[in-house]
Design goal:
This protein is an all-alpha fold. The protein folds into 2 domains: about 1-55; about 65-354, no CATH class. It is about 85% helix and about 0% strand. It contains 13 helices and no strands. It has helices at about 1-15, 25-50, 65-80, 80-95, 100-135, 140-175, 185-195, 200-215, 220-245, 245-270, 275-305, 315-340, 340-354. Helix 7 runs parallel beside helix 10 (about 245-270). The longest helix is centred in the middle third of the chain and has 38 residues, at about 140-175. The radius of gyration is 22 Å and the shape is globular. It starts with a helix and ends with a helix.
């Protein structure tokens, strides 16, 4: 609902704002408010059917409320790493000259798109199962649920990461290069996207593992992991920005996300006595091999499509990019079948089901 409100206001309200004497950006600000209300209203009928009735009662002595408060404050801190790291990046990029802040912002949004499409979906779908096993102290079931979620994350995000790496420039050119967005801006944004891309797997894994800790009633580890990733990102960004400019800031952010996920993974593995490590490693190797083949196919397909679909026209660019993605996905499907990657079949069944 938040995304729908933003898109609708951008398409409809922004063009109408200026003739009415309103700053166009205010339409996007209004969309934020409308989207927030939309998220509540969408859930309200379902909650009422489940018997929920809202009452304005504030009882600070209620055990459940105290438990939520105990977990919520560190939970906010644990999930704040992304926003803090983005703020640090923007602050440091502001000193690099015109364009650096925008390059990083555009690149981060492109990198984060697979998380919004896949990472959050997997984490949300896995949470009820994880919470149920945590509540019943069923460690084997919890271990299997987390392991399954991580393998699904790998199946979706390893190909997405490599796809962004090899198609960064044509994707950025297709989406942004028009008007005041020049070829130089495309090159700078694509470079930032390449440096951000490795963090995709880290961000997605955190989306799954942090709620697992909260389901276990442990909010300390996510806070420690988040604080460590923030400190690591800030340190690395100060070092890398001097030699790599805005690319160093993107690389520092990606490294911080991977560190955050690594700390959570190691500590959760210790807590649960393992995470089906052999099965997870086997899946990671198979998925990586299939994804490398996919990336190579997409890269050379995009270059080959320059012959029949040459030029900078929007249609020609779209055919090249979408054609390369389609060929890459076809190669991924074939490799997944040959390598017997069961997670690929699971993803396909879920997509076809919904």
């Amino acid at each position: 609902m938040f995304n729908v409100a933003t898109i609708v206001c951008a398409v409809i309200a922004v063009p109408l704002a200026q003739p009415l004497g309103i700053e166009p950006i205010m339409a996007i600000a209004a969309a934020t408010l409308i989207g927030g209300f939309g998220q509540i209203l969408l859930q309200w009928p379902v909650l009422r059917r489940q018997g929920f009735r809202y009452q304005t009662v504030l009882d600070i002595h209620d055990p459940s409320m105290r438990e939520v408060g105990r977990l919520m404050v560190p939970g906010v801190v644990g999930l704040a790493a992304v926003q803090i790291n983005l703020f640090v990046n923007s602050w440091l990029a502001a000193g690099l000259g015109t364009g650096a802040v925008s390059w990083l912002d555009y690149a981060f949004r492109l990198m984060y798109m697979p998380i919004g499409l896949f990472g959050i979906s997997i984490a949300t779908a896995s949470l009820p199962t994880i919470s149920g096993h945590a509540e019943s102290r069923n460690d084997p079931g919890l271990r299997q649920a987390v392991s399954s979620g991580l393998r699904m994350m790998l199946m979706l995000n390893v190909p997405a990461t490599l796809g962004l790496l090899v198609l960064a420039t044509p994707i950025v050119r297709l989406i942004f290069e028009r008007g005041r967005f020049t070829p130089a801006d495309t090159a700078a944004t694509a470079a930032a996207l390449v440096c951000y891309s490795p963090g995709l797997m880290g961000y997605s894994a955190v989306k799954l593992m942090s709620p697992s800790y909260y389901a276990l009633g442990n909010s300390r580890v996510p806070v420690i992991a988040s604080a460590a990733s923030i400190a690591f990102n800030i340190t690395l960004s100060f070092v890398l920005v001097r030699s790599l400019g805005h690319r160093g800031l993107a690389l520092g952010t990606a490294a911080g996300a991977l560190l955050n996920a690594s700390v959570l993974l190691v500590m959760l593995r210790m807590r649960l006595g393992g995470l089906d490590g052999r099965r997870l490693l086997t899946a990671a190797v198979k998925i990586s091999l299939a994804s490398i083949a996919m990336a190579l196919a997409a890269y050379y397909a995009e270059r080959a499509l320059h012959v029949p679909f040459a030029g900078d026209a929007l249609r020609a660019q779209a055919v090249r990019v979408l054609g390369a993605i389609a060929i890459g996905m076809g190669v991924l499907a074939v490799c997944a079948h040959l390598l017997r990657i069961e997670e690929f079949a699971q993803v396909r069944r879920r997509v076809l089901r919904y």
